[in-house]
Amino acid sequence: MNRKTMMLIFSLFFLLAACSSNEKNDSASESSDEKASSKMDASFSGKMEPEKVVEEEKMTNERKVIHQAQLELKVKSLEKAQMKIENKVEEYGGYVVESNVYREDEEKVEGSITVRVPEAHFQDFLSDSEGQASKVVGRNVTGQDVTEQFVDLKARLKSKRAVEERLLAFMQDAKKTEDLLKISSDLAAVQEEIEQLTGQMKYLENQTSYSTVTITLSQDRIVVPGIENKELNTWERTKKQLATSANLILKAGSGIIVFIIGNLPILVILGGAVAVVLWAMKRREKR
Q1: Which of 68, 79, 140, 215 is the most buried (most CB within 10 A)?
Q2: Would you state the pLDDT for residue 54?
Q3: Measured between alpha carbons, how far apart are the two ends of the chain, in Å?
């Protein structure tokens, strides 16, 4: 084998090795491009893997319970009881939602007051309110546990914020107009979902931080009638009775006069008939 033949064999060997290396690089490049493209498509669609809420996280979170109560109380003085209840609400850092008073008459007065007090003072406020009553007619306390709902909302919000960050990063790297429009559309949808989740979490936090208490108050007052001066005015009462008697006499006399004059013809006839009968009887006695 001569020198030229050896050089030709080595040249073919290096050429084959170079081609094989280029094919491997092209395959790896295509694979990485496909992975990046699929990753971007997943980000564009705004979808992520399902949220996995760890049970340990649920256990460590503080329980969130929405408490509501309805009290029906009998009180001796509605105004005083209502004022003391409002003072307690202010002392505990709560606020009055609604307050009403209904007065049918002097003997029966009713009212209602709806307040919101911090959850930490819920039981203390119920005890203080019942202490203002002469009798507790009704008591109803309910609680709704929303801990799991709150944790789920928190996990979803965290996931949506991660999607938002990725979309913002892709928006900075995007160069095509079509990509920018698609990313902007997906970003707007994700941000709207974030606002909704944030609003729901704030609502649950408000409902669990403050408890709602509705109190119905009723006051039964026994009114003792007093002696009025007009009932002791003897002279006025005497004149009134005298006038009443005189009116009765005049009314009776007027009735008699009307009867006589109105029935005069009949009375004349009856009088004549009676006179004839009497005359006949006397004449008969003489015989």
Answers
A1: 215
A2: 43
A3: 210
